[in-house]
Amino acid sequence: MDNIKVNIKDLTLHYGTNPALKNINMEIPEKMVTAFIGPSGCGKSTFLRTLNRMNDLIDNVKIDGEVIIDGVNIYDREIDVVNLRKKVGMIFQKSNPFAKSIYENIAYGPKINGIKKKSILDEIVEKSLRQAAIWDEVCGRLHTSALSLSGGQQQRICIARTLAVNPEIILMDEPASALDPISTSKIEDLISGLKKEYTIVIVTHNMQQAARTSDYTAFFYLGELIEFNKTDQIFSNPEKKQTEDYVTGRFG
Asked: pTM of the prediction?
């Protein structure tokens, strides 16, 4: 296994009395793409949100176990959740740029973190937009509303906004599911480029996307982690029959 960035130990999550995740153990490698696959409602998005404590925002959630990032359990009481979410950025299924200019969308996080100097903000904005492979499309209209862009462009703006605060891990919850094939291809190319610098975890319902973009794949079913391995192994020679049935289209 490559260098480990996130180590999940005996993670269980309940919504009220209903167990949504059951005793998950997994090691997520650094600067790789890890994909979570499985049928709808199997727990993959819930699990993704445990990695930056987004489930804290939901009532009546109880979480047991540990999520250790760089040697620290993020569920320790003294953890600063704001800092955690700076380190572990998140891209949602539906692009959600702020109703502000393209520039202000990207500069928002750095400004909150105390960067005020315009020349530094300019540099961060350009670098983030370049990393998100959208600079050439928007450099002439940074002060127009981000909401005037197409869906695929808006999603890349959201990725640039996440990159602007210098995360180490990027969580993506079905980032291309609402996009057309051309925009989807751009997002996939972007993911492949970003893993040189970031650890990326992606939830996808599209198995071809998992096969194309990820180094490791985890298959979830009914809140359990059924199998986790290198992606080519999961798709060509899975160890569990359930995994084989799912990736060959026999169920799910």
From this structure: 0.95
